[in-house]
Design a protein that fits this description.
Length: 386
């Protein structure tokens, strides 16, 4: 690995951190108070309008989007620090557009789709979702049963998707479906752009998740999609889907580093001032060990994430490295947050601090986009052979 962040990318990292410090962290008390009352984990309309405007004015929209559609075309390495900064806060906000679906669109769109979907998505005018998992088919794409059948110039989709974030608010959903049942993931899986108001596309139910977030189950019943909304090449949807998943996993690693760093800072601040039995927590060997271990593992996760991002930017195969860092970073952050909560005692159990939301989010991240055990399996197969 031979890379260094350019001055431009270092300035971007500082800019993202300043945005989090000045705009998102001050909103946390209100977000936490609403969450404690049982309200959804969301910004108010006024809060959302402000952070949208400020982040746009600061030049933080479309960071990794193509320049020809209004983006800054930044590499994956530059986005690591941005994701780390965004991970430091529990204020629910995503810099438009969300990178994973963006990357999938960038790799597959036709000129017509670029104008109809990619360009407005980069501009922050639309919201997207993606339907991959199904009831009974999560991390194993070969078990996917949603079918797409060609009918004249259209495709007709039937099936169910589950665990879809933003399905209720998305303007369009990328739906993965089997177009050749014999080939399935090996040349028989395709992607389709399905607009929210398409007949036969129905959001069945909202599913409350840990940490106050919602996912959704979606039904597709004779959902007719025009032929030009086939995303990419028929039967070749698996590779772009993996690109999308890899982007999210790398993004999760960055978030995890930021979450762990925030928890370590909260623990350190408390340990320096909290006295028990005549001694500061900071002077106790157990707490010192927790802090040292956390700092070391955060540093290791950061280096691993930059390494995987750099390899992606070089056009190198990084599938195994992404599995390594997704598993390592999320598990690392989960343990760091847990230690911070333990160090704070009863205070760490309250809904008044962000630690409980960091813990809840990390618990879901250990499952989302491939559970830790699946990523360990990917790495083990690379080491031990298939």
């Amino acid at each position: 690995m031979h890379f260094d962040l350019s001055d431009e990318h270092r300035m971007l990292a500082d800019l993202a951190q300043r945005f989090v410090d000045t705009e998102l962290l001050p909103l946390e008390p209100a977000v936490l108070a609403r969450h404690a009352r049982g309200e959804p984990l969301a910004l108010s309309e006024a809060e959302r309008a402000r952070v949208d405007q400020v982040s746009r004015d600061m030049g933080l929209w479309g960071l990794d989007a193509p320049a020809d559609v209004g983006g800054a075309d930044l590499p994956a390495v530059a986005m690591v620090a941005v994701n780390e900064a965004m991970g430091r806060t529990v204020t629910p906000f995503t810099l438009p557009p969300d990178s994973p679906n963006l990357r999938m669109l960038m790799a597959t769109v036709t000129e017509r789709q670029r104008a109809a979907y990619l360009q407005p998505y980069v501009a922050g005018e639309t919201i997207s979702a993606i339907g991959i998992s199904e009831p009974g088919a999560g991390s194993d794409p070969a078990a996917m049963t949603t079918r797409a059948v060609c009918d004249g110039e259209d495709w007709v989709l039937n099936g169910r998707k589950i665990w879809i974030s933003r399905a209720a608010e998305a303007d369009f959903t990328i739906v993965m479906a089997v177009t050749d049942p014999e080939k399935r993931a090996r040349g028989g899986m395709s992607a389709f752009l399905v607009d929210r108001d398409t007949p036969g596309f129905r959001v069945e139910r909202a599913i409350p998740m840990l940490g106050g977030h919602l996912t959704y189950e979606v039904a597709l019943e004779d959902c007719r999609v025009p032929g030009w909304k086939l995303l990419g090449v028929e039967g070749q949807g698996f590779a772009p889907m993996q690109l999308r998943l890899g982007t999210r996993r790398l993004q999760m690693a960055g978030w995890s580093i930021g979450m762990a760093q925030r928890a370590l800072e909260i623990m350190a601040e408390h340990a320096r001032t909290r006295v028990t039995f005549g001694q500061r927590l900071a002077d106790r060997g157990v707490v010192q060990g927790w802090a040292a271990n956390a700092a070391t593992r955060i540093h290791a996760a950061r280096l691993m994430t930059y390494d995987a991002a750099w390899k992606l930017d070089q056009g190198r195969e990084a599938r195994v490295e992404i599995s390594m860092v997704k598993a390592f970073a999320t598990e690392m952050a989960w343990e760091v947050v847990d230690r911070a909560m333990q160090a704070l005692g009863a205070t760490g159990m309250t809904l008044e601090l962000p630690l409980q939301l960091l813990a809840a989010k990390l618990r879901t991240m250990r499952i989302y986009d491939g559970p830790t055990e699946v990523h360990h399996w990917v790495v083990a197969r690379d080491v031990l052979g298939r």
